[in-house]
């Protein structure tokens, strides 16, 4: 009755909050819009989440829409705290009192001690009573429905907004993990750069994301998709319209995709043979928003020669897994959590 | 839990129409004239896995998350929509995880929190009741010990005080505690214990103290000191011609404290100097002298009788619980 424990996937692109028994209660972009007061130099939060994302790149002079998370870790401590405060309050809107829940936050396995501490303190500052940290691959594996407690290896690739994690898990623990700072944001940047180089036109982050979602693909497919894009011509300085197709985006994404493939290959190479055999027998599981990129599983499949499956609802795997981990914490199944 | 049951029955009817996932896939594959080997090679799975999928022998295969993935990939390879096939499989699954599936939708359930809100309301009421009881107990048990300790360092040793220390000595004991703040002479002269039959003299002494002239004060102090040392019986033998005119001059504003039980008392004058401080015993009688108005703290108001110029002063009105904290200006009282 009093349980209001939260599992938070504090991602670079999106923040998700899961409450056991209720499911995903919040899924909003990790964006905060801040107004700089002219007098006194103070700052006030104008909007958070979806509303703030609409403002990205469209703000007046005294307002900045920023993403306080970068590469899976906190880039702006104060703003992250404010954002978390807002989100925690939002999911406890109907509560009479200031919420003080137990909070589990997922952290990239490659994050440093300082970065983890920042996340922990930020969650505590946002009103959490107790803060637990869990490494993202374990959380993702639990959320995908893998039996992580079994003495059997399973490989998870979690492609987030800022980082991609490749991990081999067995017996509730990480056998091998590698985190590369390549993710959805890197794909967007790659598209922005490609368009600038080949079309001499500048496009914004939001447009690049739209292109990626509509025509982006990781593996050459039979159908070629097209999208109309508007951007500012660098030569003329005025907005221009042009058409992009999926093959061009595939070309644009080659570099970041190759880095992820490289990380997967490296993980397979480093995995102990018994666990490697388990992975080869059953396959690799993809989670995270990046796995929604068209034919990403085909790419990994072709590159590794192993079966690759995309988890059900990959966007929410990490948050759901964190929620289940919290339940396991209550059931005294410790060993899942990480210290700072 | 009723929701999954209904979807399950929906899916069941769908299966009846289209067949199990394995049969659907096999029909699709045969329709496209593809060999099992080719499918297995393209999906990077072994032939036995593909055959088990087509025969719906899911118990031979790894956990459901993999089977769902295999079915989805298989369907996609055959150019079919994977959703109905995966749904058919989920419906077949006896131990399907409704929690996992329900969680795949973003849902907001305000009613889920309303239970929590009621819990909070009940919790709040409990806290308020507990706080009220604690407050009542606090006030009814008399002066809190901590405060009494602040009044005098002796409060901790009240046991030893009660072991037959004379009131006068008590006053002496109080003096060192007040020495940091006030001159010893002052505290000495102002807290004096007098037997009831010495009242006329005491009245004279206090009325002498009233005028602020320095010589009179010293005279009064010496008188007071003598009063302390002189046995009570000898006191009336020292009549003074002065009392009558002085008493007429200023109306009787003498503040007298009489105790019918043990009580802590702290009296300070207008300057904050300690006039009387210590534990009084049953039968004690103290006359307050000094610069009014006085600040009084009486630990046991029920056992104390205060009178201003022979008129009783209603302590009950000032007492909170059994502790009376108030300031008193004898000149202002009726």
From TrEMBL, chain B:
State a single Gene Ontology molecular function.
DNA binding
Compositional bias of kind Low complexity: 1-20, 215-237
What residue stretches are annotated with the Cytoskeleton protein RodZ-like C-terminal domain? 256-327
**Region listing for Disordered, in residue ranges:** 1-24, 147-252
Does this entry carry the keyword Transmembrane?
yes
Q: Where are the transmembrane segments?
A: 117-138
Entries under InterPro entries matching the protein: Bact_Cytoskel_RodZ, Cro/C1-type_HTH, Lambda_DNA-bd_dom_sf, RodZ-like_C
Does the keyword Transmembrane belong to this entry? yes
List compositional bias (Polar residues) regions by residue number.
154-165, 178-193
Domain of life, per lineage: Bacteria
Keywords, A to Z, come to: Membrane, Transmembrane, Transmembrane helix
Report the protein name in the record.
Answer: Helix-turn-helix domain-containing protein
Q: List the lineage, top down.
A: Bacteria, Pseudomonadati, Pseudomonadota, Gammaproteobacteria, Chromatiales
């Amino acid at each position: 009755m009093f349980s209001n424990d939260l599992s938070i996937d504090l991602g670079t692109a999106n923040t998700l909050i899961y409450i056991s028994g209720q499911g995903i209660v919040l899924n909003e972009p990790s964006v905060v819009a801040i107004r700089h007061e002219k007098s006194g130099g103070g700052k006030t939060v104008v909007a958070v989440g979806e509303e703030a994302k609409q403002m990205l790149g469209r703000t007046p002079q005294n307002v900045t829409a920023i993403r306080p998370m970068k590469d899976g870790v906190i880039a702006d401590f104060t703003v992250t705290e404010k954002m978390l405060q807002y989100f925690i309050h939002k999911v406890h809107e109907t509560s009479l009192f200031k919420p003080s829940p137990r909070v589990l936050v997922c952290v990239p396995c490659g994050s440093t001690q300082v970065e983890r501490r920042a996340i922990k303190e930020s969650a505590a500052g946002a009103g959490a009573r107790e803060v637990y940290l869990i490494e993202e691959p374990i959380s993702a594996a639990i959320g995908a429905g893998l039996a992580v407690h079994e003495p059997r290896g399973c490989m998870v690739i979690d492609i987030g907004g800022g980082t991609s994690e490749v991990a081999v898990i067995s017996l509730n623990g990480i056998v091998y993990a590698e985190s590369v700072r390549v993710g959805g944001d890197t794909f967007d940047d790659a598209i922005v750069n490609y368009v600038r180089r080949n079309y001499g036109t500048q496009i914004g982050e939001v447009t690049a994301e739209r292109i990626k979602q509509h025509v982006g693909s990781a593996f050459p497919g039979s159908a070629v998709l097209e999208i109309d894009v508007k951007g500012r011509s660098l030569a003329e300085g005025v907005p221009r319209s042009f058409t992009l197709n999926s093959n061009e985006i595939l070309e644009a994404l080659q570099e970041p995709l190759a880095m992820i493939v490289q990380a997967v290959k490296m993980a397979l190479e480093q995995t102990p043979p018994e666990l490697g055999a388990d992975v080869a027998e059953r396959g690799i599981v993809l989670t995270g928003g990046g796995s929604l990129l068209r034919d990403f599983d085909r790419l990994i499949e072709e590159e590794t020669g192993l079966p690759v499956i995309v988890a059900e609802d990959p966007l929410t795997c990490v948050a759901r897994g964190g929620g289940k981990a919290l339940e396991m914490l209550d059931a005294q199944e410790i060993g899942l959590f990480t210290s700072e | 839990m009723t929701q999954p049951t209904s979807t399950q029955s929906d899916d069941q009817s769908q299966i009846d129409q289209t067949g199990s996932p394995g049969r659907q896939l096999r029909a699709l594959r045969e329709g496209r004239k593809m060999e099992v080997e080719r499918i297995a090679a393209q999906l990077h799975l072994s032939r036995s896995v593909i055959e088990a999928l087509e025969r719906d022998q899911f118990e031979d295969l790894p956990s459901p998350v993999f089977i769902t993935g295999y079915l989805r990939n298989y369907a996609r390879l055959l150019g079919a929509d994977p959703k109905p096939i995966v749904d058919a499989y989920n419906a077949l699954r006896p131990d399907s995880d409704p929690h996992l599936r329900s969680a795949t939708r973003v849902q907001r359930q305000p009613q889920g929190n309303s239970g929590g809100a009621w819990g909070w309301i009940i919790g709040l009421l409990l806290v308020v009741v507990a706080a009220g009881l604690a407050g009542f107990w606090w006030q009814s048990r008399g002066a809190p010990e901590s405060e009494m300790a602040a009044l005098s360092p002796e409060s901790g040793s009240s046991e030893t005080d009660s072991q037959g220390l004379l009131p006068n000595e008590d006053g002496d004991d109080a003096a060192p505690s007040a020495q940091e703040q006030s001159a010893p002479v002052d505290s000495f002269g102002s807290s004096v214990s007098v037997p009831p039959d010495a009242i006329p003299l005491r009245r004279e002494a206090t009325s002498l103290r009233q005028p602020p002239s320095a010589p009179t004060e010293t005279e009064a102090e010496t008188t007071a000191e003598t009063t302390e040392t002189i046995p009570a019986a000898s006191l009336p033998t020292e009549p003074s011609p002065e009392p009558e005119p002085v008493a007429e001059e200023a109306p009787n504003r003498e503040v007298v404290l009489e105790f019918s039980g043990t009580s802590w008392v702290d009296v300070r004058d207008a300057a904050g100097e300690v006039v009387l401080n210590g534990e009084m015993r049953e039968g004690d009688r103290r006359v307050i002298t000094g610069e009014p108005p006085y600040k009084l703290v009486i630990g046991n108001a029920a056992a104390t009788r205060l009178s201003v110029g022979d008129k009783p002063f209603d302590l009950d009105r000032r007492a909170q619980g059994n502790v009376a904290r108030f300031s008193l200006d004898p000149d202002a009282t009726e």
